[in-house]
Design brief:
alpha/beta; TIM Barrel; 8-stranded parallel sheet; 9 helices; binds pyridoxal-5'-phosphate; PyrdxlP_homeostasis; Pyridoxal phosphate homeostasis protein
Length: 221
Protein backbone atom coordinates (compact mmCIF):
# COMPACT_ATOMS: atom_id res chain seq x y z
CA UNK A 1 0.00 0.00 0.00
CA UNK A 2 1.15 3.53 -0.74
CA UNK A 3 1.32 6.38 1.76
CA UNK A 4 -2.10 7.79 0.83
CA UNK A 5 -3.81 4.40 1.16
CA UNK A 6 -2.18 3.82 4.54
CA UNK A 7 -3.28 7.23 5.79
CA UNK A 8 -6.85 6.59 4.69
CA UNK A 9 -6.99 3.11 6.22
CA UNK A 10 -5.47 4.15 9.54
CA UNK A 11 -7.48 7.37 9.78
CA UNK A 12 -10.66 5.36 9.33
CA UNK A 13 -9.65 2.90 12.06
CA UNK A 14 -8.58 5.63 14.48
CA UNK A 15 -11.45 8.06 13.94
CA UNK A 16 -13.90 5.30 14.85
CA UNK A 17 -12.02 4.94 18.13
CA UNK A 18 -11.66 8.68 18.73
CA UNK A 19 -7.86 8.47 18.69
CA UNK A 20 -5.75 11.23 17.11
CA UNK A 21 -3.04 10.29 14.62
CA UNK A 22 0.37 11.92 14.62
CA UNK A 23 2.12 10.95 11.38
CA UNK A 24 5.76 10.64 12.40
CA UNK A 25 7.68 12.08 9.47
CA UNK A 26 11.25 12.05 10.83
CA UNK A 27 13.78 11.12 8.11
CA UNK A 28 11.02 11.33 5.45
CA UNK A 29 11.32 13.64 2.47
CA UNK A 30 9.14 16.66 1.79
CA UNK A 31 7.64 14.71 -1.13
CA UNK A 32 6.63 11.82 1.13
CA UNK A 33 5.09 14.22 3.63
CA UNK A 34 3.17 15.97 0.86
CA UNK A 35 1.77 12.64 -0.24
CA UNK A 36 0.33 12.16 3.24
CA UNK A 37 -0.81 15.79 3.28
CA UNK A 38 -2.72 15.40 0.02
CA UNK A 39 -4.41 12.31 1.48
CA UNK A 40 -5.77 14.64 4.17
CA UNK A 41 -3.22 14.26 6.98
CA UNK A 42 -2.48 17.57 8.72
CA UNK A 43 -0.67 16.49 11.91
CA UNK A 44 2.99 15.50 11.74
CA UNK A 45 5.59 14.65 14.36
CA UNK A 46 9.34 15.18 14.22
CA UNK A 47 12.01 14.31 16.76
CA UNK A 48 14.89 16.62 15.79
CA UNK A 49 14.54 20.41 16.04
CA UNK A 50 16.66 21.25 13.01
CA UNK A 51 14.74 18.87 10.76
CA UNK A 52 11.43 20.12 12.14
CA UNK A 53 12.30 23.76 11.44
CA UNK A 54 13.44 23.00 7.88
CA UNK A 55 10.26 21.08 7.10
CA UNK A 56 8.05 23.71 8.71
CA UNK A 57 9.65 26.33 6.45
CA UNK A 58 9.14 24.29 3.32
CA UNK A 59 5.71 22.73 3.79
CA UNK A 60 2.12 24.13 3.83
CA UNK A 61 1.35 26.38 6.76
CA UNK A 62 -1.81 24.58 7.84
CA UNK A 63 0.24 21.61 9.05
CA UNK A 64 0.13 21.04 12.81
CA UNK A 65 3.65 20.19 14.00
CA UNK A 66 4.38 18.11 17.09
CA UNK A 67 7.82 17.67 18.61
CA UNK A 68 8.09 14.09 19.89
CA UNK A 69 11.84 13.79 20.55
CA UNK A 70 14.06 15.02 23.35
CA UNK A 71 14.30 18.82 23.50
CA UNK A 72 17.25 20.76 24.84
CA UNK A 73 16.40 24.05 26.55
CA UNK A 74 18.66 26.03 24.23
CA UNK A 75 16.68 24.89 21.17
CA UNK A 76 13.23 25.96 22.33
CA UNK A 77 13.68 29.33 20.65
CA UNK A 78 13.75 27.79 17.18
CA UNK A 79 10.29 26.24 17.43
CA UNK A 80 8.39 28.46 19.90
CA UNK A 81 6.73 30.58 17.20
CA UNK A 82 4.93 27.70 15.49
CA UNK A 83 5.02 24.41 17.41
CA UNK A 84 1.56 22.97 18.18
CA UNK A 85 2.53 20.49 20.85
CA UNK A 86 5.70 19.39 22.62
CA UNK A 87 5.39 15.75 23.75
CA UNK A 88 8.76 15.48 25.43
CA UNK A 89 8.80 17.85 28.41
CA UNK A 90 10.89 16.10 31.04
CA UNK A 91 11.98 18.82 33.46
CA UNK A 92 10.77 22.01 35.14
CA UNK A 93 13.77 23.78 33.65
CA UNK A 94 12.63 22.93 30.13
CA UNK A 95 9.03 23.85 30.90
CA UNK A 96 10.17 27.25 32.19
CA UNK A 97 12.16 27.83 29.03
CA UNK A 98 9.14 26.95 26.86
CA UNK A 99 7.04 29.33 28.96
CA UNK A 100 9.58 32.12 28.46
CA UNK A 101 9.52 31.76 24.68
CA UNK A 102 5.75 31.30 24.63
CA UNK A 103 5.50 34.66 26.35
CA UNK A 104 7.83 36.27 23.83
CA UNK A 105 5.62 35.09 20.97
CA UNK A 106 2.39 35.80 22.88
CA UNK A 107 1.39 32.15 22.63
CA UNK A 108 0.33 29.45 25.04
CA UNK A 109 2.23 26.33 24.05
CA UNK A 110 0.61 22.92 24.53
CA UNK A 111 2.89 20.43 26.25
CA UNK A 112 2.83 16.83 27.41
CA UNK A 113 4.94 15.62 30.30
CA UNK A 114 6.99 12.63 29.19
CA UNK A 115 6.94 9.78 31.68
CA UNK A 116 9.61 7.10 31.84
CA UNK A 117 7.74 3.80 31.60
CA UNK A 118 10.16 1.53 29.73
CA UNK A 119 12.60 -0.81 31.39
CA UNK A 120 15.47 0.49 29.23
CA UNK A 121 17.23 3.35 30.96
CA UNK A 122 18.17 5.02 27.70
CA UNK A 123 14.72 6.53 27.31
CA UNK A 124 14.02 10.04 28.54
CA UNK A 125 11.23 10.99 30.89
CA UNK A 126 10.16 11.80 34.41
CA UNK A 127 9.55 9.14 37.01
CA UNK A 128 6.48 9.37 39.25
CA UNK A 129 8.24 11.26 42.02
CA UNK A 130 9.77 13.80 39.66
CA UNK A 131 6.37 14.33 38.05
CA UNK A 132 4.73 15.08 41.39
CA UNK A 133 7.60 17.36 42.38
CA UNK A 134 7.23 19.35 39.17
CA UNK A 135 3.48 19.74 39.59
CA UNK A 136 3.82 20.71 43.27
CA UNK A 137 6.65 23.19 42.69
CA UNK A 138 6.02 26.82 43.50
CA UNK A 139 7.01 27.83 40.00
CA UNK A 140 4.66 25.58 38.07
CA UNK A 141 1.41 27.52 38.72
CA UNK A 142 3.14 30.74 37.65
CA UNK A 143 3.80 29.51 34.13
CA UNK A 144 1.16 31.25 32.04
CA UNK A 145 2.41 30.47 28.55
CA UNK A 146 2.43 26.69 28.69
CA UNK A 147 -0.56 24.42 29.01
CA UNK A 148 -0.10 20.84 30.20
CA UNK A 149 -2.42 18.79 28.00
CA UNK A 150 -1.48 15.37 29.40
CA UNK A 151 1.21 12.71 29.46
CA UNK A 152 3.36 10.85 26.93
CA UNK A 153 5.26 7.60 27.24
CA UNK A 154 7.31 5.16 25.18
CA UNK A 155 7.03 1.47 26.05
CA UNK A 156 9.94 -0.97 26.14
CA UNK A 157 11.01 -2.11 22.69
CA UNK A 158 10.16 -5.80 23.11
CA UNK A 159 8.09 -8.53 21.46
CA UNK A 160 6.69 -9.39 24.88
CA UNK A 161 3.19 -7.93 24.63
CA UNK A 162 2.48 -8.48 28.31
CA UNK A 163 5.31 -6.13 29.28
CA UNK A 164 4.12 -3.45 26.84
CA UNK A 165 0.55 -3.80 28.05
CA UNK A 166 1.58 -3.43 31.69
CA UNK A 167 3.62 -0.31 30.94
CA UNK A 168 0.74 1.34 29.08
CA UNK A 169 -1.70 0.31 31.79
CA UNK A 170 0.56 1.91 34.41
CA UNK A 171 0.77 5.13 32.38
CA UNK A 172 -3.01 5.27 32.01
CA UNK A 173 -3.45 4.85 35.79
CA UNK A 174 -0.94 7.61 36.38
CA UNK A 175 -2.76 9.84 33.89
CA UNK A 176 -6.09 9.26 35.66
CA UNK A 177 -4.55 9.88 39.08
CA UNK A 178 -2.79 13.07 38.01
CA UNK A 179 -5.92 14.33 36.31
CA UNK A 180 -7.96 13.76 39.47
CA UNK A 181 -5.39 15.36 41.78
CA UNK A 182 -3.94 18.23 39.76
CA UNK A 183 -6.18 18.91 36.75
CA UNK A 184 -9.69 18.27 38.04
CA UNK A 185 -11.01 21.62 36.85
CA UNK A 186 -9.01 21.81 33.64
CA UNK A 187 -10.85 20.00 30.85
CA UNK A 188 -7.91 20.55 28.50
CA UNK A 189 -5.92 17.89 30.39
CA UNK A 190 -7.22 15.27 27.97
CA UNK A 191 -4.29 13.80 26.06
CA UNK A 192 -2.49 10.52 26.60
CA UNK A 193 0.13 10.11 23.87
CA UNK A 194 1.13 6.45 23.78
CA UNK A 195 1.59 3.92 21.00
CA UNK A 196 3.92 3.64 18.00
CA UNK A 197 3.72 1.37 14.94
CA UNK A 198 4.68 -1.79 16.84
CA UNK A 199 2.40 -1.31 19.82
CA UNK A 200 -0.38 1.17 19.04
CA UNK A 201 -3.17 -1.40 19.17
CA UNK A 202 -2.19 -2.37 22.71
CA UNK A 203 -1.87 1.32 23.60
CA UNK A 204 -5.39 2.06 22.37
CA UNK A 205 -6.79 -0.87 24.35
CA UNK A 206 -5.15 0.63 27.41
CA UNK A 207 -6.63 4.09 26.88
CA UNK A 208 -4.38 6.03 24.53
CA UNK A 209 -5.92 9.13 22.92
CA UNK A 210 -3.05 9.92 20.54
CA UNK A 211 -0.77 7.55 18.63
CA UNK A 212 2.52 8.38 16.90
CA UNK A 213 2.94 6.28 13.77
CA UNK A 214 5.89 6.42 11.39
CA UNK A 215 6.70 3.14 9.68
CA UNK A 216 3.07 2.01 9.51
CA UNK A 217 2.38 4.99 7.26
CA UNK A 218 5.64 5.61 5.41
CA UNK A 219 7.25 2.15 5.42
CA UNK A 220 10.40 1.09 7.22
CA UNK A 221 13.06 3.70 7.90
C1 LIG B 1 10.16 7.46 15.73
C2 LIG B 1 9.17 7.67 16.80
C3 LIG B 1 7.85 7.20 16.68
C4 LIG B 1 7.34 6.42 15.49
O1 LIG B 1 7.95 5.19 15.38
P1 LIG B 1 7.41 4.05 14.36
O2 LIG B 1 7.89 2.79 14.93
O3 LIG B 1 8.01 4.38 13.03
O4 LIG B 1 5.93 4.17 14.33
C5 LIG B 1 6.97 7.47 17.72
N1 LIG B 1 7.35 8.15 18.81
C6 LIG B 1 8.60 8.62 18.96
C7 LIG B 1 8.95 9.35 20.22
C8 LIG B 1 9.54 8.38 17.97
O5 LIG B 1 10.80 8.85 18.15
Amino acid sequence: MGIADQINAIQEELSRLGVKLIAVSKTRSVEEILEAYHAGQRVFGENIVQELVAKHDELPKDIEWHLIGHLQSNKVKYIASFINMIHSVDSLKLLKEIDKHGKKHERIIDCLLQIHIASEDTKFGLDHIELIELLRSEEFPRLQHVRIRGLMGIATNTDNQRVVKEEFCELKSLFDGIKASFFKDTPYFDTLSMGMSADYKIAIEQGSTMVRLGSTIFGNR
